Hints:
This protein has helices at 2-16, 117-122, and strands at 42-43, 49-51, 54-69, 74-89, 96-99, 104-107, 112-114, 128-131, 136-145, 151-156, 170-173. By secondary structure, it is mainly β. The strands form three sheets. Strands 1, 2, 3, 4 and 9 form a five-stranded antiparallel β-sheet that branches.
Amino acid sequence: MRRSLLIACVVAALTSCGPEPEKPQTRPTYDLPPRQVRVNETPIHAAPVTDGDARFQVIGLQSGQASLSGSHAEWPAKGQFVTVRVVVENPGRSTSRFDARKQLLVTADGRTFPVDDTAQITKRQPREISVGAGVRIEMDLWFDIPKNAQPAAVKLYGDPPIGYPSTEGVRVPLK
């Protein structure tokens, strides 16, 4: 009995004296104030996604717009304008390129539509831009789709990593 008690004490001492498991450390976060959603915009609560050298987060959607006006022009939609508000981030250590003209809007029936150049220019949104290391840019992507089409997703394409000709793109639902 003494021997059993001694063994139990030794085992207990050895298991309780080992190093404590490391606790995962959380990095501090920025304190950014919440912002109100723009007039006629629906907030999108999508998780960030990555494609190529870019990380994207879709944050807003406007659809059913019959026309747009910019600083120098007003322009009617052929169908309806749809605006997708997106944050583009370069988490890398060198500059990457964001090309708005590669981005696609996917409608409920599976058709895809590219960014509308005229709308993008009129609203003074970038079509192609260099994104520096560690830089985040928030912008609108403007699409002109048929009046009765329903936006379902946006397919986003980042800059391909060095040595790759293209990326597969990543689809983000707009709900």
